[in-house]
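Onboarding guide, step 5: your first structure request.
Type a short instruction followed by the sequence, for example:

Predict the 3D structure of this protein.
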Amino acid sequence: MEVEKYNCLTADNFCVPNYTPNPKHRCIQAYYALNNDVILIGEADPCYIYWLSVTKLDDEAANRQIVDCVLHMEPTLFGHESDVLESTKYSAEQLRSFYSAPVKQAEDIILHLQEAKERCKGLETNGKFIQGLQHDLKVLSYEAASPAAFYRKHKSKITRLQEMKFLHCSDNPQVRDLYEQLDKCCTELYDAYMTEAH
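The system replies with structure tokens like these:
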């Protein structure tokens, strides 16, 4: 099995960096989609990637080969995440909404997802958890006259919610749906705040 065939970064969608990415910044991030897909991205640094593949979570043989390859390869092609994603069924906006975790070895892929699901279950045992999310959504959906003032007022709540991306992995569809709305709401509030602040 030729592992390179999994890489969606190709001669058709690469770009030439206007500087040499520092090898010290290289890392692998796993993004978890809802349909058992895992998107593995070899990040050269915050601006460029050198690998992007979409595989099934339970295809352990392929994922092991990919992680081993990406960890040890010397990148020759670089690209922008959003450009490379165009050759997949996912958009950059979707990717930002997925739960993600750093991968140092192939086992981490399943492990991080299991940990995320455990964290969800831990919160969901509290009968008032869903009510809490519903309340947060109601508060943050308010149409404020000044987005900047509104954002500053609720900054701690927004930050706390943005740190809960693992809720995208919940087995409870109601929690996933609520959190998806909240995540989108927090992003919009931040964007509105930045627009008004500048």
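Each response can be followed by summary notes, for example: Residues 39 and 64 are 13 Å apart (CA to CA).
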